[in-house]
Write the structure tokens for this entry.
Amino acid sequence: MGLGMLGLANLLGPEILGSAVAADGVNGNSPLAPRSPHFPAKARRVIHIFANGGPSHLDTFDPKPELTRLHGQPLPMDNLKTERKTGAAWKSPFTFKQYGQSGIEVSELFQHVAESIDDIAVIRSMHADVPNHEPSLMLMNCGDARLPRPSLGAWVTYGLGSENQNLPGFISLCPGYPIQESQNWQSAFLPGIYQGTHINTKHEKVEQLIEHIKSNSVSLEEQRKQLDLLHQLNERHARRRANDAQLEARIQSFELAYRMQMDATDAFDISQEPAAIRELYGKGTQARQLLIARRLLERGVRFIQVWHGDGQPWDNHDDLEEGHRKLAKESDQPIGALLKDLKQRGMLDDTLVIWGGEFGRTPTVELPTPGANAGKINGRDHNHYGFTMWMAGGGVRGGYVHGATDDFGFKAVEKPVHVHDLHATILHLLGFDHTRLTFRHAGRDFRLTDVHGNVVKELIA
């Protein structure tokens, strides 16, 4: 009976607490309170570095000598059908070199990342469903290419909560918006508190990064009194509208915004970092984003997505050499610095780092299309049949190459890994059985991987 009373006290907690907030800023029934996964996890937090637009695996992490040999000639097979017409084989304009004790080959574009290759598992056999940006972004981020579904970050924060109640559990850093905008970090039918918080990192000052982070008219104490009154009114309103998820999310957002005023101001101020650390990451938006991401991870944010830029910068249908060289220059040093920085702080072991785009590019050159590539013949089309992603830290098997595409890099042929398999593996590293992390909606139990997905055990250390 005593244990029963403890359970009853927990159920009555929200009513007893009313609008009171504990000294640590945690509401008595906080939906972001830390929770335990299904089994002991190897990773506690995630940073997903998204090269939006589709980087070429053939020019980054999947060298193909056969393309050099057949450059300018038709492939000894039919070109696979992609979004646009392609022609002859087109060799990579970049050189590859072996790195680390594992001897994994990496393009000259990512020399700084390659210095940590022994901590990285390179998946050369990724594949998706279609060669179009919008559905492929939705598949990679939300597990479904067509229907509104919660994003990976939303599922992770739903399952694990957050270790800092004064910051969002899921943050999306992007200078502008990728295509599909907020759908990439949506919560869909999950409670709104699990949706990603977008931060426009084209700005540098915290007052511009986060609107209304400081009040110019009232003190924090006065704001607290206002919020307490507002909370009471909202609670009275909510009781007459039971189970209104949108209303509950709005109420929680007021509290979170108030608590962010102190923690966020500190977390986004990279001037507090030693000069040596800022030099390690380098200059530019990507460097600033990744350094902020590390500071957020340190402060308990569960899932951070770092986008390369506005729109789809890696979508190089023409001028690929120029485009990829510029983009890699912006991101190679900061990503390499992040891996080293996490490791020297002892954080890489339980931080899962993911890099990749929504698909790869064709080994054949894209043919001129009116209004598409300005008549040039120096780029690659989208390729969902085979591409590369990599993961590091968080229980991942470092210095390992998983699977392979064919001799030309067109299609995954050895140990293929679908996006559903990748999601299942990510959740496994975080301590979840992907078939059991579910949410009941519209009469059925939904999950990130729907009815698909297998854990790729070879990727786990």
